[in-house]
Amino acid sequence: MMRDPDLLTFTLLALLTACRHDRAEDLGPAGPSVTPYELGRPYYFPELQIPADDPLTVEGIALGRRLYYDPILSTGGPLAGLSCSSCHNQSLSFSVPNNGPSVLPHVNLAWSRNFLWNGKVQGDLEDIMCFEVEEFFQVDLNVLRNHPVYPDRFRDAFGEVEITGTLVEKALAQWFRRLVSSNSRFDSYLRHEIEFTTSEFNGMMVFMTETGDCFHCHGIPLMTDNAFHNIGLDSAFTPADQGRYLVTGDPADLGAFKAPTLRNVALTAPYMHDGRFQTLEEVVEHYDSGVNPSPSLDPIMTKPGQQIHLGLNPMQKADLLAFLHTLTDDSFITDTALASPF
Amino acid sequence: MDLLRDTLRHFDTMTMNLRRFPPLLIVGLSILSGACQKDEDDPPAPTPTSVAVALKVEHHMDGVPLIFDTILYTTAAEHAYSVSRLEYYLSEIILFGAGSTPNDTLRGPYYVNGSGTTSFTVGELPAAEYSGAALLLGLPQELNVTGGLPNTMENVNMAWPDPMGGGYHFIKFEGHFLDGATATGFAMHVGNNTYLPHAALGQSFTLDGRSGTLAIRFNLNELFRTPHTYDLSTGNYSMGDMMLMGQLRDNAFDAFTIEYRP
Is the confidence metric ipTM above 0.85 for this complex? Predict the structure, then answer.
C-alpha cells in the first residue's frame, strides 16, 4: 500500500538504480538450440506473467538450475563456497532448516511480486535475482567467463553474448519459475481425484471459514496473498521484528511480514520470520491464543467481538493440522528434474 | 433526508426504466427508424459523435481525499477510524441519458485497489447529456461464482471461500478505529449475492465531444450512515454476519457520486 510516498519512492529508486539493468541490453541473437519451455500449471492457478525479455527456454532453465546448485556463484564473495542449494534443501521444499531467523522457501515464487520477509525487493523474479547476484552472492563474473563450461551454456541459452550479471539473473529467474509445487494431496482434492479424510475435510473447513480465518492471508491456490501482515507475534518491536516498516517507514507496517506460502508447510520449519516456532502445533497455538495486540496488528486478526484469539477446541486444532499436512507435495520434493545436475 | 429521498426517487425511476429497457429500446429504435427514413432532399445526417473516456475512481471522506493508515476520519457513530486496505469491484455501471433511460453500460468488472489501481480504459462513449448513473459495488450474479473471473492474482485474493458460498469478496474495507483510547482493527468484508450493494449516482453530466475522465467518487463515510448507523464497536468484523453485511449493502446505496471532467 502507498504509505509515506517519499520514502517509498526513494527506496524504490535506490533499488532500481542499484539493481536493475535494462534487461534487453545484454541480449544477443538467440542460440540455435533454444527451445521454448511451456510451464505447466493447474487451471486454478493464476495466470503467469513472464517478462517478454526473459521467456522460458529449456536451455535457460538448465543453466539456471546449474547455477543454483553450483558454489561458483559465491566465489570470492562473502558467502564463498556456498550455492543456493547449500541452504535451500529440495527435500524440504527448498526451505532452510536452520535455528534462528528463517528463510522463505523457493516455491511458486513465479507468482510473487514481493520478495524477502519485508518486501525489500519488489517486481519480477529477475529483480530479486539481481539482488541475489549483486548484493547477496556478489558474483564474480570473470569466474564464469573463464570457466570451461559456462560460456557455452550461456551461449546456448542467450546467444553469442558476453556473460553479464543480467544474464545470470535471467537464467536464475527462469529456474525459479520452474519451481512449481502444484501436486499436493490438496491439489488432488481440488481436482476431484481423491476424497479427504473426515479430519482433513474438517480442517479445511476450519481453514476456509471464519472459524480459523486462515484463508484471507493464505488463500487458494497459492496459499499466500503475497502481502504483508502483522499477525501479533509481538507487542513491541526490536529492529529485527519491525518487518515491512524498515522498508516503508510507515508505523502501520510495524511488525508486518510477508505471508509465506503454506504449500509444503509441514516441511518448512522453523516458522515465522525469526524461526521462533519449531512445529506447526506451536503455530496453531499462536493463532489460537497467543496473538499480541499492538496498534499495527493487522485488522484481519481482529475477530467478531474484537477478539484476537480463535479459541479452537482440541479437535479443531487436530483437524487443522491434518489439513495443513495435505499441502505437502511429495512429487515436488522428489522430482529429479529439480535436483542437482551435478 | 430530502437529498436521500430525492436520490431514492431518482433511482426508482432509473430502476423502473432499466427494467423496461428492452421495450423502450425497441420503441426508441422504431421511432428513430421512422424518423430517419432517407429522403433525397434531407441534408446529410450528422455523424454520430462519441468521445474517448477514461474511468477514474476516487476515494474521499466527505470531500476530503483519503489518506491511508492514519486515524483521521469519524463514523456516524462517532468512532475515529483509519483505512489500511480498500479493495473492491465495480461493475454494471449504467449511464442514464435524458429521461433516465439507459444510454450505455460499462460492464466491467473493474477491480479497484484504493492504494493501487484506480484508473481504467473505457473507450468511446456516446456524446450526450446524462442524467445520472447506477452501479454495482461488487459483481453481477453470473460472475459471482468460484472461477467466474479470470485467475489473476487480484481475483484469487478476492475469492470468497466455497464453504462460505463461493464467488468473490465484493469489497474488503479494513482499518483501525478508536474504541475509547484503544485502537482496534475492523474488517468490513461483503460478499454473497444477497448482500450485493446497488448504488445510485444522481448527478447529471454532459459528454460534449471533448475526451476526458469519468470520475466516480466513493465517499467511505457513507458506509457508516443512512439508513443504518453502523457501530464499529459491535460490528468490527462483517464477513459471514448477515446483519452487518446487510447494513453495509444498504448504506452503500448513496456512497458514490459521478462527474465528467473534459
Answer: yes
